[in-house]
Amino acid sequence: MFRIARLCLSTGSCSETSLGTALPCRALWTSSVCQHAEPAVSDQPIEASTSPAHALGAIRTTWTREEVHQVYDTPLLELVFRAATVHRMHNDPRMVQRCTLLSIKTGGCPETCTYCSQSSSWRKETGLKAEKLMDLEEVYQAAVRARDSGSTRFCMGAAWRGPSQVGKGQWNRVLDMVSRIRGLGMEVCTTLGMLTPEQAKQLREAGLTAYNHNLDTSPEYYSKITSSRKYEDRLDTLDSVRKAGISVCAGGIIGMGEGSMDRVGLLHQLATLPEHPESVPINALVAVKGTPLQDQAPPSALDIIRCIATARITMPRSVVRLSAGRLNFSRSDQALCFMAGANSIFDGDKLLTTPNNERNEDLEMFETLGLRSRPAFLPYASGGETSNGGCTLPEEAHGLQQAAL
């Protein structure tokens, strides 16, 4: 009788397979019976508990650091397999969002982030001059071009400590940018530094979809990355964003000299926020000449894949964004990132001040891998009910379901 070899996730009968509580075994199927072979090797099994709360793919914010460490340390191919399983439980694995990032105010930032070329602390070494905030029409036209190229999310970054450092005129210009770009039918994200609750509320009223504020690294390693703010400042801004009803975009940067436990610490911090971020960017450091981290070797693609897979397992419904540093990855590297759970990229030839993959290359990759673009304003399953990125304007809702098909 014809037999088909397959991987069966089960500790008992194959007819009672549970992805959440089982350890993998190799088995042979016939038309009527599943014949078990020896258990597959798994040095670091993720699921040691039979509790539904600890099942593979369960949504929870009660991860311990040791649990996240066990996930992170799983042998890579097994980790990717489990992450891919979770990804398919909660997401369409073919759907990847294309986002565009624009620096609307470059250089002159008073913060001391050692990875960032825009810090005024190393402006002499980097040679990057501070620029004025871009004009409204210039930014609007950039958003139009991005939309016409297929991006559904437009992100704007300003090299500020926060809006509190600038005048009312500049702040109102940013709010106008948000409103006009939202009118294009695009999701709108900003990264403007630390926010007060009132500033977050104003951004929400202007139509902001999401706010990016990365935690960068673990709490323990953070003081080695910047001396101008505390980790708690980052968490306070995320709290203000969430309470204002704005979608939270928070991730980190890999390859800044941190150890594996710092990467675990970052992912643990994100996975144990009161609600998982709707978006989790995983950035690979792009070392910029003149910054304190200029000689830092970039992380490997496999380092990023491991982080993406861990993020997917611990935050099953979040959009995991394959962000900075993708230019150094082959198409095969990126394919493994998508398999491990990444479902968003930044397209366009520039990310703030560093180079990025060309759009034509990404379109070819989408075609080769059978990916399709995520439409704007599909609700984000992760996060809070009032900040899931869903439609709030009638014209955005029109035809959304058809666009998603």
Automatic annotation (TrEMBL):
InterPro entries (alphabetical): Aldolase_TIM, BATS_dom, Biotin_synth/BioAB, Biotin_synthase, Elp3/MiaA/NifB-like_rSAM, rSAM, rSAM_sf
Annotated PROSITE patterns: RADICAL_SAM
Gene3D superfamilies given in the database record: Aldolase class I (3.20.20.70)
Any one biological process term the GO annotation gives: biotin biosynthetic process
A Gene Ontology cellular-component term: mitochondrion
Known EC number: 2.8.1.6
Keyword rRNA-binding in annotation: no
Domain of life where this protein originates: Eukaryota
Keyword S-adenosyl-L-methionine: yes
EC primary class: transferase
Pathway participation: Cofactor biosynthesis; biotin biosynthesis; biotin from 7,8-diaminononanoate: step 2/2
Domain Radical SAM core: 94-326
Keywords: 2Fe-2S, 4Fe-4S, Biotin biosynthesis, Iron, Iron-sulfur, Metal-binding, S-adenosyl-L-methionine, Transferase
CDD domains: Radical_SAM (cd01335)
Cofactors that this protein relies on: [2Fe-2S] cluster; [4Fe-4S] cluster
GO function terms (MF aspect): 2 iron, 2 sulfur cluster binding; 4 iron, 4 sulfur cluster binding; biotin synthase activity; metal ion binding
PANTHER family assigned to the protein according to its UniProt record, in alphabetical order: BIOTIN SYNTHASE (PTHR22976), BIOTIN SYNTHASE, MITOCHONDRIAL (PTHR22976:SF2)
Family the entry assigns: Belongs to the radical SAM superfamily. Biotin synthase family.
Name of the molecule in the record: biotin synthase
Annotated source species: Coccomyxa viridis
